[in-house]
Automatic annotation (TrEMBL), chains A, B, C:
Enzyme Commission numbers on file: 2.1.3.11
Role noted for this protein: Catalyzes the transfer of the carbamoyl group from carbamoyl phosphate to the delta-amino group of N(2)-succinyl-L-ornithine to produce N(2)-succinyl-L-citrulline. Is essential for arginine biosynthesis.
Organism: Shivajiella indica
Assembly and oligomerization: Homotrimer.
Protein name (record): N-succinylornithine carbamoyltransferase
Recorded metabolic or biological pathway in which this protein acts: Amino-acid biosynthesis; L-arginine biosynthesis
The entry's keywords: Amino-acid biosynthesis, Arginine biosynthesis, Transferase
InterPro entries hit by this protein: ArgF'-like (IPR043696), Asp/Orn_carbamoyltranf_P-bd (IPR006132), Asp/Orn_carbamoylTrfase (IPR006130), Asp/Orn_carbamoylTrfase_sf (IPR036901), Asp_carbamoyltransf_Asp/Orn-bd (IPR006131)
Residue numbers binding carbamoyl phosphate: 47-50, 75, 110, 147-150, 273-274, 301
Domain Aspartate/ornithine carbamoyltransferase Asp/Orn-binding: 185-311
GO molecular function terms listed in the Swiss-Prot or TrEMBL record: N-acetylornithine carbamoyltransferase activity
SUPFAM superfamilies in UniProt: Aspartate/ornithine carbamoyltransferase
Amino acid sequence: MKHFTQFESKKLADSLIEKALAYKSHPRMEAAKGLGKKIGCIFLNPSLRTRASTQIAALNLGMDPIVMNMDKEGWALEMKEGAIMNKGTVEHIKDAAGVLGSYFDILAIRAFPSLTNKQEDIEDFIFNQFIKYSGVPVISLESAIRHPLQSLADMVTIHENVGQIKKPKVVLTWAPHIKAIPHAVANSFAEWAIGCGHDLTITHPEGYNLDPMFTQGAKIELDQQKALEGADFVYVKNWSAYNDYGKIVTTDNSWMLTEKHFKHAKKAKVMHCLPVRRNIEISDEILDGTRSLVQEQANNRIYAAQSVISHILG
Amino acid sequence: MKHFTQFESKKLADSLIEKALAYKSHPRMEAAKGLGKKIGCIFLNPSLRTRASTQIAALNLGMDPIVMNMDKEGWALEMKEGAIMNKGTVEHIKDAAGVLGSYFDILAIRAFPSLTNKQEDIEDFIFNQFIKYSGVPVISLESAIRHPLQSLADMVTIHENVGQIKKPKVVLTWAPHIKAIPHAVANSFAEWAIGCGHDLTITHPEGYNLDPMFTQGAKIELDQQKALEGADFVYVKNWSAYNDYGKIVTTDNSWMLTEKHFKHAKKAKVMHCLPVRRNIEISDEILDGTRSLVQEQANNRIYAAQSVISHILG
Amino acid sequence: MKHFTQFESKKLADSLIEKALAYKSHPRMEAAKGLGKKIGCIFLNPSLRTRASTQIAALNLGMDPIVMNMDKEGWALEMKEGAIMNKGTVEHIKDAAGVLGSYFDILAIRAFPSLTNKQEDIEDFIFNQFIKYSGVPVISLESAIRHPLQSLADMVTIHENVGQIKKPKVVLTWAPHIKAIPHAVANSFAEWAIGCGHDLTITHPEGYNLDPMFTQGAKIELDQQKALEGADFVYVKNWSAYNDYGKIVTTDNSWMLTEKHFKHAKKAKVMHCLPVRRNIEISDEILDGTRSLVQEQANNRIYAAQSVISHILG
C-alpha cells in the first residue's frame, strides 16, 4: 500500500483493524515513530471529525500535522490540463500538489464530488490529481467516491461488537435527507463490508441504486423491512441518486430508521458515520438508545487513521 | 473543580493565582506535565487573545492544542432536544459534543450569547450542552454569561499591582460602545472581584444594571464621578442592557474614561480586557499612559490558562 | 539582524544561503534549537506556500508555530494614530501588536499593500506598525513592498543552479496577469539579486517601471527580446504600475514567456515565485519542461525560513 484510498485486500484490512485496536488500547505505544515527519491535511471541504481525528492520530505517532483549508485559506485550484488561466482559479493543481508533496512526508486530502459532473466524480479526478502530482503517499480523507478511513473505523467497530457471530448480517440502508449527499460513505462501506467477508444487504428506494462497481457481492433488496430481517448491524446513510446523478428522487420518510423497524432484528446495532440529521435519517430513540454505535464509530476514527498513517510510515 | 466555568471559592482562586504567577516566572517549569494529552479549543465565535493564549498555555505544559472553528470549519449545531433536523443545522450538539469529548482530554469552548434569547443566555445553554454531552473537563473560553479565564487573569494583575493595599477599592465602570456587547466580562469580573474580597463598586448609566446574580456584595453607584473617588483599580467595560435585554439604551460619551475622570483617584490603575475601542471606551491618553494595565492583563491570560489547565490535569 | 524584512549585506545573505543549504541536507540537524519557543504567524492575507513552509521551518527547529488568520479568525485592525474607533475596526494595531509581542518569541507577519494608498504602501505602514509596537523580532512573510523570504529562497535556488558561472546574467521580466498585483516580489528580487552581486537586467513594458529605490544597479531594457539575450536565469513576475499606482496599463500577451523567447538564451533557467497563472504569465511548455526551477524555489522556501528563524534565535 503506497496510498490509502480504497479497500485493497482482506489481509491488509485485517492487519489495519488489528493495529487500530492495539492503538486504541495504547494510543501512544509508538509515540516516536513519526518524529520529525509532517503530514499535510488538505481540506477542500469542511470537516469536524476527520479534521480532529487525523491530527490526533498523527500526534499519537509523534508526527506534526499541518492543516490547510484550501477553500478558505488557500485558493481556487485549476484542474484542467492546458487551461489558459485568465479566470477565477489562481493556481494549477500541478503546481500546488507538487509544492505540497515537497513540503510533507504524507498528504491527507479531502475533496468532495461536484454531484454535477458524473464522469469527473467517478474518475475521482481532483483526488487523483493530488496523487499524480504530489509524489508522496496520499491518504483519502474522503474523495468524490470513497471514504476509506470511515469504512476502516466502521470495520473496527463491527469487529469489536460482533461477538461470537461468524458472518454477521450487515444491512446498508438508505435514509431520507433534505440535501443531495455524496455516495462516498455508502460506496466505501459496501466495498469494505464485502471485502471483509460480511454478509451485506443493501436496501434503498427505487432510483437510488449505487454505482455497481461497489456493490458486487451484496444482496440488493428494495423492501426495507425484508432487508432488515435478522440484521446484526444496520448502517444508515443517505445518498443522492446515481443514475439520475446527484438528484433527490424521493424523500419518503418511512425510510427513517425508528424502533419499529427492528421488529425482526431485535439485537441489531445501528451505525452511522455522523453528522446525522436526527429525526430525519434516524429517530432520537435509536440514537440515544443501546442499539447505537455511532459514538464508538467516531471514536474509532482516531485509531483507524493512526493505523493507516503508521502503515505508511512503515 | 472538574470544569472551569466560574468563581468557586477564594481558596481555589488564591491557589490558581499563585500558580499562575509561578508559571509567569517559569513558563516551562512543568513542560512535560500534559505530554501526550490533547486539548480541543472549540470556537463558536472569533477570538485573538484567547485563541493564542490558550494554545500557548497548553504547549507550555507539553499538551497538544487543536483549534476548531466551528462557525467556519465545522457547521451549525442543533441545540434543541427532539428537533426534527430538516433545516440549516447539520449536527446535534449531543452528537458533536460526544465525539469531541471522546477525542480530547480537555475541551475549551467559546460560545457567545445570542443577546436576543434572554432565558437561553442566562442558562448558558449552549455552553452547558457541551458540559452535559462531552463527558470531559470543559474550560470556558467565554460563555454567554461568564469569561472566567479573563477574570482570573484580571485577579492576577490586581495581585501584582496591589502593593501594600489590604482591600483595594475596585471600580467596574460601564463605558460607551457602538455595538451591543455581551455581559460576560462584566459579570465575571464582578463575581471574581467580590469573591476575592476586593471592595467593588459598580457604576453605569440608568438602565445598564447587570444581572443581580453577579453583583451581590458590590456597591452600585450611578454617579460615575462619585464611584471613581479613591479608586485603586478601575475596570472599564461596555455592556448592553440587561433588563431591556441586549439593547443599547444610551451612548452618553461623557462615560468614556479620560484623564479628567481621575481627579479624585490620582493613583488609580486602569484595566480593560481588550479589544478596546480607543477614544470611545477609553481615551488614548489613558491607554498609552502609566495608569494602563491592559497589556499586562492580556499577557496574564497565558498564565491564567496555564494554571487552570494544570489544575485540571491534576 | 534583529528583524528580517529586507536585504542587509552580501555577507549576511551568503551566510543565510549557506545555512539554508545545510538545513536542506539535514532539516533536523538542530531539532532542539527552538524548543519551548513560539512563533506567531499572522496572516492579514491568504497564503499557501508561506503558511506551510514557515510552520515546517519552525517545527524543524523544535519551535511551536501558531497561525492566526487576522482577516478571518481575528478582526479588522485600526491603523490610524488617534482614531476615534466608532466604525468597522475593532482593535488598534498598538494594542494587538503589543499583545502578540508579549505572547510570542518571534512574530512572522503577512500584510499586503492596498495598491490604492501609495504613500502608506511605500512606507510599509502596516508591517512597520507591528515592528513598532510588538517589541519582538519580526519576520516578513511579505509586506507591502518586499517579500524577503521568497528572495532568499530564490538566491538559494540560483546558488544551487549556477554551476561554474561566476556572475550569472539574471533577467527579471514583467509578465501579463489579469489582476493588479503587488510589487513586493519584484522589488525584493531586484534588491537581493543586485545585493548578491548578480548581473541583473529588468525588462517590462512602458509604464511598468518599479520603484527606483529597488532597482539601483540593474540595467533597465524595455525590449524584452534584447533583455533575454544570453540570460542564465529568467525570473518571471507580473506587477501593476508604480507611477500610475496599482493600475494595469497593458496586458500585452506577447510578454508571456514561451519557448520561442529563448532563441538567444538556450540554457536559461526559468523562475517564478508561484502561484503562476499558466498560459498567461508563462506557457505550459516552459513550466513543465527542464528550464523550470519553480518547484525547487518553492521547496527552498522551507530552508530559507529555517535559516532566518535560526539566525534570529541566535
